[in-house]
Structures are given as structure tokens and as C-alpha cells.
Amino acid sequence: MEERNHGHVRQDSVPGMDHAAMGHGEMDHDDHAAMGHGEMDHDDHAVHTQGQHAGHSTAMFKNRFWLTLALSVPVVYFSPMVGHLLGYVPPEFPGSPWIAPILGTVIFFYGGQPFLKGGWQEIKARQPGMMLLISMAITVAFIASWVTSLGLGGFDLDFWWELALLVAIMLLGHWIEMRALGSARGALDALAALLPDEAERVIDGGTETIGITELVAGDIVLVRSGARMPADGVITEGSAEVDESMITGESKTVPRTVGDPVVAGTVATDSSLRLKVSAVGDDTALAGIQRLVAEAQSSTSRAQALADRAAAFLFYFAAGAGVITFIVWSLLGSIPDAVTRTVTVLVIACPHALGLAIPLVIAISTERAARAGVLIKNRMALERMRTIDVVLFDKTGTLTKGEPALTDVEAIEGLLTDDLLALAAAVESDSEHPVARAIANAAQLTGAPVLTATDFRSMTGRGVQATVGGSDLAVGGPALLAELNLTEPERVAMATRGWRERGASVLHVIRDGAVIGAVALEDEVRDESRQAVQALQDRGIKVAMITGDARQVAQAVAAELHIDEVFAEVLPQDKDQKVAELQGRGLRVAMVGDGVNDAPALARAEVGIAIGAGTDVAMESAGVVLAGNDPRAVLSMVDLSHASYRKMWQNLVWATGYNIISVPLAAGVFAFAGIVLSPAAGAVLMSLSTIVVALNAQLLRRLRLNPADAR
User: Fold this and answer.
1) Which of 492, 489, 415, 490 is nearest to 448 (CA)?
2) C-beta of residue 243 within 8 angstroms of C-beta of residue 267
């Protein structure tokens, strides 16, 4: 059971950890910036540690694309084949025939370097894919073009323009693709940023400022008001309201006093503390979460894109077709035809369309999603969302509003509830606490009389006091009743008993030493949550909820929303295990959360979805970020996933279908009937295939993703 001592929750049912019952707060970005931890520029560092993009960065692909594109313009313009196709004659002057070979060579070695290196890695790993397919095509085009430029063998295989465009388009595709990927390091950097750089260690005669790496267990440190805890420890002197939102995900401060444990990265909001360090460095709770995030992210980073599987198929198809083509035409006694047909097969085996089939869909999907308030950071999140079996929502601030609202008022006989509410609002009028605001707002909405309070006093962990109309009034929770040795009148007790059973927080109003009534406050369920849960279930997706709150609180919310499964009283470090438990049943999980404690679970789930009001760490760990707190945005993600997946497959079918048809034609299978696909015609068809793929991807823009319209 949880009860609020003047708005501060005591979680009796979860030993060793206090949780706020309500509210998700944003990370303090000003503090974050003050520590010198700026936002990372993900364009400037690699986003994969393995796979086709190993060692590559978004900025690298971008820079190579623009330079390659600039070099490709003169190569294409001075190509006799392009001139013949478009009906113009390229200008001739001394050295003009060497423009395409020289610039094409630069393009091959500079622009093609990532693909050549990636192809070699795929050969060594015996896992042919897109990189090997691209490198095979550009290498064959490069060699054949030089043979033609040098006049060797009398071949007419001028593929310089095709080489240039192929490299440029593939660089563009990979640049677009990598812009859609999230950075695995981002979450770990955001976690590290929660710690201060320095600590004030208490020594004889004062304090000394040292780096947190110099702290050892047993040190006494001074934490000033507004500062972050530099290490895990136990308070030895002082008391304060501590903001633990970056660890628990709950925005309400909790009272901490002598003997209470505190966690590195949390903030003493209103008073200074002295604490004895119990854990530093890798032994802190924050470091443990960091390790879970790293482990979970590495476990989901091995997924392969659909295009990779198609590329592997096309590599074997093209290589086999090339070998057969050369052998057959050689046996027919035409070595020049054998070379020409083989080169044509190998060059057009890597269609531009395949390189853009997935990236274009992802780019348009992310743009459409962003307009609907959904930021897709990880391409695999988009693909996986259509396969999700269960959506696991963090309760507070996601399904609920994350802030207390007054739900019930009970006064003693002879006192009107409006008058009781007016007295409580007067006492709370000088407080900025969320509970005080909830009481004041309720009094204003009900039209209760406005009273004036004087001599306002705050009693940490117990409540507040003031003088109203000559009477001494106090508003507080069970701790205040215990301190004053007061009991509830029977009428009030009957009401508060039912409130507690459903998990509401109870505050008592005391006048001149007697309880005159009580109020109930609860975290209000969002109207949007009802619609989101129903719509997900209508789509055949189960809905589960996870929270650190007491079981009766969780069950009350679950019953109101008709949620399928509830995980209550879950310690922050155990949320990751609950995701793994669902996965162990064979379910594919989408996790929606916003606290640092949610980060490992977000990373472990097939799809991690962070709400926009969450911490930097949660958003870095997630593959998807919701700009707002509307849970219906998850439906937009589901619908977009199905639509984009269809477009991906349509594009892949078109791209691979083009190859399946054009490669046999280029190989001369129907030469006996006079049907032969020339190198120039093959290149043109390749370009047309790219246009078809691009136009098909554009059809995604017709998809409406307004969460308010979700059904």
C-alpha cells in the first residue's frame, strides 16, 4: 500500500526502494548542459559495430556522395553512350576522351571504397550481401571500361557513366539508410552524463573538491541543494526532498533523511546533505543500468535488413548467370560475345533500385511518422513493429497523466465538503508541490470560497501548517496523524478505507488538533489510454502494464483500462527481466517507457518506445520516440509498420524481378530469336527500375497517421 505524507509517497510494499506513485518527469536538461555533456552529433560517429556498415559513419557516406555526384556529372555528360541515347554529341577537345576514365577512376576508388571494403569483409565472413553485390558490379564495370578506353580487344563496354551513377546512388541509399539508424552509444553517454564531474569530500576543517573517480567507499561527501549525488551512499546528516526521476522514472520528489540510501545521479532539490559513500564507479546502481543497456542493445543489433537477404540471393544468381553465360558463349565459339554478355550481366546484376528499395521507404516512413509525433530512430524498429504480440506500457505518465488529481473529499458531520476543500486549499496556497496545486485547482473548479492563510510552515515528510481564520490548520498524511497521536473520525475512516483499497493517496485536514476531513488524490488515467488499449486489442495485440506502484494501484488502473496483464511492485532494475519473461513465452514485445530505469527494458524489447517527456537515456535506448505523451501514437507506429513493410516488399519484388528478367536477356538466352539486351538498354532499364521504386515509395505519403483518428 502507498500513502502520501503531504504528497510524498511511502511505498511500504516494496522493501528497499521508495517509488513515487505518480508522475514522470523530464531530465533536467539545464543541469545536464551545465555538466558539460552536450548533445552528441550522431552524424559524426559510427552507428554499427558489425555488419555492412562496420566502421562507417553517416557523415562519411554523406561526404562521399556529394563529391561523387559532382564528379559524376562530367562523366555522364561526356559519355558517348549517354549522348547517343539522348541524341546529342559530347564536345570534343584535346584530352576530352580521358575525362570519363580519370574521373571514373577517382569515383571507383574514393566513392566505391566503402563497398569494396564491405564486399571483402563479406567474402571473408562467407556472407555475401549488398556490399559484395555492389563491389562486384562496380569492379567489373571499372575493368571493362578501362579495357574499352585503352582500345584492348576491340570491346565496346564503356560503363564509366554507369559506374559513376551506380556508386553515387548506392552512396545516397546508404546515407539515407544510416540517417534512420539510432546510435547504440548514445544511451550509454546519456547515462554517464547523469553523474557530476566532481564531488565535495568532507575532510578535517572543511571540504575538498575532487573528481568522482577519486572517491572510495567510506568517504563522506557534501551534496549541496540542487546538486547530484556523485555516488551511491547513505545519508549521515541532513534531510531533503530528492528527485529520483532519472532512476525511478517518477517525477515526484521523495523525502530522504539520516539512514536512508541514495543513488548516484539523483538530485537533492531543497537542502544540502552529507552522505557516506557505499558504492562508486562500476558498483553503482547507475553503472548496473548502463551495463544492462549495453548488453540489451548488443543483443538486438544483429538483425539483418530485408535488402541484405535479397542482395545475397542476387549475388549468387548474378555470379551463377555470369559463369554460365561465359561458358555457353565460349562454347559457341564467340569469345568477344562471351565477354560482352558476361560483363553486361554482372554490371546490371546490381540494380540501383535494390540500393534504394529499403532506404527510400524508411526515409519517407520516418518523415511521415515525425509529422504524427513519432520519431523512428532505428530501422529495425519500423520493420519489427508489425510483428509485435504485446505492448508493455509503463503506467505513470504514459497511461496516466503522471500528476495527482483530487478525486474524493470527505468531511466530518456538520462541515460541507466545499468548506473543507477551501480550508485545505488555503493551507496549501503557498506551496508549489504538485499535490498542493491539485487541491487548489479542485477548489477553484468546485467554486469553493477563497480563504487567506498566514504563518505557512512546511514539515518535511509530514505535511504543511498555516493559520486560517484564527484557527491552526494542517494538511498531511499518516505520519502527521501519528506525530499528533490523532485518529480519524468513523465517518472519515470509512471513506479513507475504500480510497486506500483502490490505491489512492490520502491527506487529512486537521483543525485545532482534530481531524475534520480527508481528501483522496490519484494519478488520473488519460482518456487517450482507453482508446489506445482498445484499438491495440482490436488489432490482435495484447496490452500489458508495468509499474513500481503497489499492486492495488496497478490493478485499479488495469481494471479501468481492461489491460490484459499487469506487473506491479517491480523494482527499477527488474523491468528488463519482465521484458525477458514475456519474450521467454515466445511473445514479441514493444516496451513504452520514459525513465532511466526503463532504458534496459526499452533496449531489450523488440521495439523500444520512449515518450517525449522522458529522460535522454530512455530516448537514446529506444528505437522509437513519441514526441508527446499520447499513447495512441503507438497505433500510428503499428499502422506505419504494416504499410512500410508492404512497400519494402513491393520494391524488393520489383528490383529483384527486374534482375530475374533482365539478366537472362543480357546473357543472350533468347538470342536465337533475335532478342538480346544490349549494355545500353540494360542500363536504361536499370534507371527505369529505380524510378518505379522511387515513385512506389512516394505512395506512402498518402498514409494518414493522426493519433486522434486512431481506431
Assistant:
1) 415
2) yes
Element (H, E) at 75: helix 58-77
d(CA 133, CA 318): 9
C-alpha cell at 476: 498531511
Q: What's the pLDDT at 510?
A: 92
Residue that wins the pLDDT comparison between 705 and 651: 651
Strand 471-476's sheet: what is its strand order? 400-411, 514-525, 505-511, 471-476, 463-468, 453-459
Query: pLDDT tens digit string along 675-692?
Result: 777 666 766 676 677 778
Measure the CA–CA gap between 175 and 60, rounded to whole angstroms.
8
CA 693 to chain centre: 28
Residues in CB range of 147: below 8 A, 6 or more apart? 153, 155, 157
pLDDT given at position 11:
31
All cell numbers assigned to 72: 559524376
Give me the residue label for grid cell 559495430: 49
Kindly list the catalytic residues: 394
Range picked from 1-5, 91-95, 281-285 for highest mean pLDDT: 91-95
Q: What is the pTM of this model?
A: 0.57
Instruction: Assess contact for 338 and 348: CB atoms under 8 A.
Output: no
Distance CA 637, CA 102 (A): 47
Instruction: Tell me the C-alpha distance between 688 and 44, whole Å.
Output: 34
d(CA 141, CA 344): 9
Compute the C-alpha angle 257/2/510, nearest 5°.
Answer: 80
Q: How far apart are CA 353 and CA 116, in angstroms?
A: 19
Distance (Å, rounded) from C-alpha 190 to C-alpha 620? 8
CA distance 495 to 273: 39
Hunting for cell 559463369 — which residue is that?
323
Q: What is the pLDDT of residue 388?
A: 93
Return d(Cα 641, Cα 657) in angstroms, integer. 23
Distance CA 343, CA 136 (A): 11
DSSP string, 557-589: HHHHHT-SEEE-S--GGGHHHHHHHHHHTT--E
Provide the sign of the torsion angle of the four alpha carbons 428, 431, 436, 440, taken in this order: positive
**Per-residue model confidence (pLDDT) at position 202:** 92
* 3-class DSSP state of 14: coil
- Residue 456's SS3 state is strand
What's the pLDDT band for 42 if we cut at 50, 70, 90? very low
Q: Whose CA is closest to 520, among 7, 19, 25, 11?
A: 7
Cell digits for 103?
Answer: 574521373
Axis crossing angle, helix 527-538 with helix 551-561, rounded to the nearest 10: 70
8 A C-beta contact, residue 394 and residue 428 = no
Specify the DSSP class assigned to residue 225: T
Q: What is the DSSP annotation of 382-433?
A: HHHGGG-SEEEEEIIIIIEEEEEEEEEEEE-TTS-HHHHHHHHHHHHTT--S
CB 253 within 8 A of CB 242: yes
The amino acid present at 153, given as its one-letter code, is: G
Phi, psi of 675 (to 5 degrees): -105, 110
Rounded Cα–Cα distance for residues 431 and 426 (Å): 10
Distance CA 183, CA 377 (A): 8
Q: How far apart are CA 119 and CA 113, in angstroms?
A: 10
Task: Give Cα separations from 120 to 153, 249, 355, 390 (angstroms).
Answer: 29, 46, 18, 40
- Neighbouring CB atoms inside 10 A of 229's CB total 29
The model's pLDDT over 444-484, given as tens digits with 9 standing for 90+, comes to: 888 888 888 888 888 776 788 899 988 999 998 888 888 88
Q: What share of the chain is helix, strand, coil (3-state, %, to 5)?
A: 50, 20, 30
